[in-house]
């Protein structure tokens, strides 16, 4: 398939890096912090109990689904309150969580591919999570980061995709969204009018009939290869044909 891509929007968790090891690290970091600063909380809420509490808080506060940091603070505040701890510990406990949350290990292909993509066109991050690209050290590869908390609604809400296109300065049809999730990334982007690339790292089978990705790759480097091949094809076209492909006028 051949089409013009002017800019890319990119999911983060499970697209640039796996989230599962981050989740394990977060749980241990919070528990270790509680053992040191609030032992009663650590005893009342060992890792399995804190996990169950987090799941309940998230389920009971669906109106905050776009703001995972707020939900994490609610979870920590509840644990401190229930264990009789000083609530002034909340922000320090959250910082322990957030430091662990931003310790990421990118997939082996991610950094090389990201550098190649960013050298070719603007790349913007769209995430439902609360990763901080500045703290991670990857912000320099991105035009900007748009989070669900900042926007006020999470993917697959079409508004967050359209807001990113507006900031990029391109029509949705000229923007390719890349992500791992069938609904929040592929279907959400497609419904908003963007091109959609499914980064299918696990080799799953596409089973949706109402929507399909424009592209599917098992690694981000494959997308970089595809874009470079597209550019080579355009360079080989006569001027008139090239103008028709890119939508530019030859007069």
What does it look like?
- This protein has 251 residues and is α/β, with parallel strands linked by helices.
- The chain folds into 2 domains: 7-17 and 106-246, Rossmann fold; 20-101, Four Helix Bundle (Hemerythrin (Met), subunit A).
- It is built from 12 helices and 6 strands.
- It has helices spanning 20-37, 39-44, 47-60, 68-82, 90-101, 110-120, 133-136, 148-151, 158-168, 182-191, 220-236, 239-246, and strands at residues 7-10, 123-127, 144-147, 175-179, 195-199, 215-217.
- It has a 6-stranded parallel sheet with strand order 3-2-1-4-5-6, with helices on both faces.
- Strand 2 (123-127), helix 7 and strand 3 (144-147) form a beta-alpha-beta unit.
- The longest helix is centred in the N-terminal third of the chain and has 18 residues, at 20-37.
- The radius of gyration is 21 Å and the shape is elongated.
- It starts with 6 loop residues before the first strand and ends in a 5-residue tail after the last helix.
- Mean pLDDT is 93; it is low at 240-251.
- It holds the Pfam family Hydrolase.
- It comes from Aromatoleum buckelii.
- This is HAD-IA family hydrolase.
- Keywords: Hydrolase.
